[in-house]
What we know:
alpha+beta, Aminopeptidase, 32% helix, globular, N-acetyltransferase domain-containing protein, acyltransferase activity, transferring groups other than amino-acyl groups, acyltransferase, GNAT_dom
Amino acid sequence: MKEFTIRQATLADADALQECMMAAYSVYLETLKEISLPPLEVDYASEILNYPTWVAQREGKIVGGLIMTFEESCAVVSNIAVHPAAQGIGLGRALLVFAEQQARTKEITRMRLATHVLLTGNVSLYQHLGWNVVDQDSVRITMEKQIS
């Protein structure tokens, strides 16, 4: 039985999405020390209004989020996160598969995302799901995936 649903976010979801993202990213604060995390400073109401945004719900609570942008030849996963209480049930993978489906509806075959170099668990997950590192500097790893 599927333990969660993914749906388009509405403005009414902004506060709950913000809380979910804060919880998801706060687990990285110790690893990243003084480094700022842009997802912790985002106005999620503005994100919902301006970008394709989806939420994952479980038992009526928002436990994940996905924000994308679409360029002419590339779908960009701008922000993706899962609440710590909902990790380990396949939700991160499901959100990435959902993102691929959104790209396919626009006939886009290349996807891109970026993550911090110190978030090695994220990099491993993305690589396991077919993403490849295409660029890296001292802060950011950029990854891409070809989809059909």
